[in-house]
Amino acid sequence: MPSFCQTDVDPLLTSAQEAQERQDFAAAAEDYRAAVKVRPDTPELWANLGIMEYEAHQYQAAAKDLASAIRLNSSLYSPFLFLGLDELRLDRPKEALPYLQKAEKLNGSDPQPLLALGRAEVSLKDYAEATNAYRKALLLDPENGRAWFDAGMAYLSNLEKDSRTLAEITPPSGYSKALFAESLAEQRRYVEAATQYVGALDVQPQPPCLHSALGFVYLRQGKASEAMEQFQSEKKLYPECNSPYLGMAEIDFAASRQNEGLQELEQSWSGDPGYTTSNLSPMLEMLSADQREELASAVAARKIQVDGQSRDFLDALLRQLREKDSRAENRGSRETVPSQSPSVQRGKALAAYQGGHYRECARWIGSSAGQHPSAELLLAAKCSYMTGDYLAATTAARLAGAKLPADPEVLYWSIRADQRLAVEALERFQSIAPDSPQTHLLLGDMDRQRHHYDEAISEYKLALDEAPNDPAALHGLTSAYLFDGKIEDAVKTATAALSLNPNDPELNLLFGEALVAQRKYQEAEAPLQKSLSGKPQLLPQAHALLGQVYAGLGRVPEAIANLKLGLDADEDGSFHYQLARLYRQTGDTGAAAAAMEQAKSLAQEHRARAVIAVQEAPQSADQ
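-> structure tokens emitted (623 positions)
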């Protein structure tokens, strides 16, 4: 092959660089394509060609030419990175992994391969590996808002996966009941939460410190005496729990007994500073501005009288009182402990836990947790979580999960740690990009899940102001309109969203549901049929709506078949009631009677939930 001097391609390279500067990537690719014809053995030219093709959205061509660069020189960083990105664009995450892993090895100071690795692992539903990649990227670029957002969403996805696994375990465990109760408490559905906590207390095995959890729910209902009974029971039955001290301190502070409350908090701090720091926020948030100021004055006065550990505690409390956001991030100490035999370490870890010294417990198990049996890994997860080191907790829980993949206790600690890490990551994202479309989308989703539809609608509209065609914002807005009873707005928004993505199953389900609400059965059939290709958990709702459509169109056999497939989505008995009427039309009186009985039972349960919701309303309004 004849040789060419550099000057043979200089004009092409100059033209390519000029096109690249004006972001005309297709033109730049043409110039590089001409250059590689002149110098086909130059890997850098192939790499630049592939990168320009990638930027010009010519993904198939980019994959081919980046691979040529790698064949010529397997130590170039950019071809591996962009070939990995290209495979992701082509929806081939499994093929992207080796290229991105190689890119990370070639350039460990660039977060881009790690961020792309995270996206690939999310696509493959390996959320643990995804969060590991995002965490590494954030060590390199702590102010990368998108990385915090993606990490938070990966933690939420792992949480959702573990929650589904836990829900499928029968009979329900104390762990699943406790998580459900916690979820209800976060929604301020305190009467229901208390009922669930009482149920969890009747089941063994169960998570630690449930009496305190029930006590805090009673406090949110204004039932201080019932709460105190639970805190006292916890202290007596489970001395390893530091939570009763926080609950009793809250009662004291609300009654302006600052000194007594400070003594309770100091008792918790002496057991484990990490636990106290990580769990002060909910208590402090319950205090009025005057109560907080009164407590701050009491802390400042007490600081003059003490020193040592007591002074450290008061300093930490004062910092949280004076911060606008009283949440404090805590990470367990990485301090090592003297080397001991495994049996001695196990004994010391367990003794530390039983004494309420959670950080010491986690340290005795140590960083070599992967070498330990599952019981010790569970203890490490529990102690790390209790001391506020959620990253260590989720690591230990995942190691335990590799050995016990469907164990309720493993899933419980994994879910709780991932929940905390997701909140931390998303709050960090929000602080970095408070007015971004992603922030408004996130806030909209949170408001919608809490049934605050007006606030959700406002947030989704703010997101769409910045990104008018964002599919997630359009989906969220459609859903918020629908559940707020604004059916016409839901139909208009869904129509706009489907013009961009006509085959989206979830959008078609929302569109179909809105049309059914308008009794437009003929129009609803097509989108509901498309929705059947969606997630399995959405299929009962889709079939139930199709059953209503076919009933409205007089197609009785199809209506019965679909309603039967949708009965899992019946929350108030209405689907069973409609099925009973259809059975009567066919002359099947026995099936009609059975369906009607089930309809009555579900309707009664629904009414009971509605009564509880009304009982909750005063507390929600006060909050």
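DSSP finds 33 helices and no strands in the chain.
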